[in-house]
Design brief:
497 residues, alpha+beta, four-stranded antiparallel sheet, elongated
Amino acid sequence: MADTPPSLYAAREPIFPRRVSGFFRKFKWWIMAVTLGIYYLLPWVRWDRGPNMPDQAVLADLAHRRFFFFWIEIWPHEFYFVAGLLIMAGLGLFLFTSALGRVWCGYACPQTVWTDLFLLVERRVEGDRNAQIRLWKSKWDARKWRLRITKWLIWLAISVATGGAWVFYFTDAPTLAVNLVTLNAPSVAYVSIAILTATTFVFGGFMREQVCIYMCPWPRIQAAMMDEGTLTVGYRTWRGEPRGKHRKGARAAAETRIATAYTETNLPEADQGTGDCIDCMACVNVCPMGIDIRDGQQMECITCALCIDACDEIMDKIGKPRGLIDYLSLEDVPPPKDDPARASWTPKPVWQHVLRPRSILYTALWSIIGIGLVVALFVRSDIELTVSPVRNPTFVMQSDGSIRNIYDVRLRNKSGDDRLFHLSLTSDETLRIGLEGTNTLSVLVPANETLLQRVYVTARQGDPAASADRTDLRLWVEDLTTNTRASVATLFNGTGE
């Protein structure tokens, strides 16, 4: 009988990160509070835009195909603003990654933020790391069921709030909230909330690091954004190795003198004793990805820097300098001991890691796009028009011999008031203009609406434009309230004889 091939499947080993305190942990708490506060509360911020307009500060009004962001209103034909913001977000991600590694993943990624929140709930309900491990290995008794159900219910409440907050961005939040409670909301709202609730509950509660490792493409792309000068979380091997348990007494005092003599310009020799790493596993126990940063940079590392806080805490306790695990780059690795350059080697200051040609280029591109969007936002007019010549037929010969062209003109009033728009034309030839449904050349366009108006342009018999193949002309629209004008160039088709 042939040997059974080994299984390539390995069951997931649950990760129970230990609680840690320090600068980076506090920084992450602040980012969590700010980002979650913005996400949950922003739909409820009001903004007065006048009558017949939504008063929600941030609203993606799909029904009317507009996006509102405080005083900014984006129409469908202005999607280039959204495209520009997406490009800026991508360049910003490239910039931060080239300078500080996966800083987005470690601090602001939604998967990281919600996982941190779920871990906080888990610790409050089940206890810290050791208590969670004991509970995981214990049998399913009444206490274990009680703790698990309590944790799951809190997770579910957070997940429902997450899905509910998302749908509030697409319609008036107070109105939708009442409709959701009274079961009068559209079915798409309930479906959206259910999907987002399920994904938040599963991704933040059970999949956690698996989302980052197996589902997110960014760990595989980030290598193209990083180089030897990129600052990322790393372990100073030349200082920490060889590892050894912390000992008290004369030998420990001698080793401590060696370690405390360490500076970036005066490197301790590892063969004079054990390194600073006492193999306490604190950096491993706090890692939400379950990796050992001492093994070098790994795809799974999200650069959350919690291992820095954990290691610094241990270094303080054993009387050794901080920074065994820190933000550093490959350029910060000193030359070998037998290299003559080691004596004069100094690491680059932080600003040289950040201000590099790559990061400067990303910043310049990001700034150019941002400035361009701001300029385009402030120079755009409150009135716009588009002209579509009717091509079937291209022209009409009337009973008096004159030639008439027909145009469909869309007049867009982007102000908050009804406006009277006056239409006219300019051309090198003599042409007459008329509007369908009115004897005047002015039409009333409702506030924040688009009006489709049919326009007739006529060349009398004998005029050069009537017999010419094509004649250039320009259609103008003027807001009679503000005297703002806009125009579009088009063509008049004649007989060509």
